[in-house]
């Protein structure tokens, strides 16, 4: 059992923070509570010394657990899954989520602007390749791992949402779309979208 089930969650709405935010709400029935703290990119809050002390790269999300800051979305999801096994959110160690997807989110703000277009192009290709792997993994299965949703499924849905601006978005793969439609029926999906100010209809009917 974790020494604490209360966390401090640093986030920027409608970013890669979304799957962590979603899973934290899913963990509420298991006694998990958290304090959200907004990191406002428009005011360069991610470059404030107090935030850089938590994450020297100035990126989101950051989850503080037992006074220890943890960064990187996939790492946070894995740790939450391990700390709260009753929620059955543990992903497979061989999850096909490609870590280079982070290039898509940070190339413009933290990378070389002249190289951002190339980085995004490469990230899109890698994500598209990843969706093909996901689609194959989901053939004949409702979820990526086992018979219930794990953290890998929450992350996959959010990556599919991020890819909506791609030439070949994740929803073009039939099994990925079926997973998305299944997962967004969870009440927590609507709640997290409301809290983050995410509007519009996704996926489109």
From TrEMBL:
CDD domains named among the record's database cross-references: GST_N_Beta
Taking every annotated instance into account, which residue ranges of this chain make up the domain GST N-terminal?
Answer: 7-88
Domain of life from the UniProt record: Eukaryota
Question: What Gene3D superfamilies does the annotation carry?
Answer: 1.20.1050.10, Glutaredoxin (3.40.30.10)
Q: Which residues cross the membrane?
A: none
Instruction: Return the InterPro entries for the record.
Output: Glutathione-S-Trfase_C-like, Glutathione-S-Trfase_C_sf, Glutathione_S-Trfase_N, GST_C, Thioredoxin-like_sf
Residues covered by the GST C-terminal domain: 79-205
Pfam families hit by this protein: GST_C, GST_N
The record's similarity note reads:
Belongs to the GST superfamily.
Protein's name according to its UniProt entry: GST N-terminal domain-containing protein
């Amino acid at each position: 059992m974790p020494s604490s089930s209360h966390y401090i969650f640093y986030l920027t709405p409608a970013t890669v923070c979304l799957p962590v935010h979603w899973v934290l709400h899913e963990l509420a029935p298991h006694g998990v509570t958290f304090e959200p703290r907004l990191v406002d990119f428009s005011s360069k809050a991610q470059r404030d010394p107090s935030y850089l002390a938590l994450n020297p790269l100035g990126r989101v999300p950051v989850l503080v657990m037992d006074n220890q800051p943890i960064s990187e979305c996939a790492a946070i999801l894995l740790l939450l899954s391990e700390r709260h096994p009753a929620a059955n959110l543990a992903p497979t160690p061989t999850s096909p989520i490609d870590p280079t997807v982070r290039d898509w989110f940070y190339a413009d703000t933290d990378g070389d602007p002249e190289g951002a277009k190339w980085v995004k192009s490469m990230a899109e290709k890698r994500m598209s390749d990843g969706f093909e792997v996901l689609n194959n993994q989901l053939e004949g299965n409702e979820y990526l791992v086992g018979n219930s949703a794990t953290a890998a499924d929450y992350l996959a849905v959010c990556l599919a949402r991020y890819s909506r601006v791609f030439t070949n978005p994740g929803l073009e793969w039939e099994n990925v779309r079926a997973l998305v439609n299944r997962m967004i029926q969870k009440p927590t999906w609507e709640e997290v979208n409301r809290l983050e100010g995410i509007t519009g209809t996704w996926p489109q009917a």
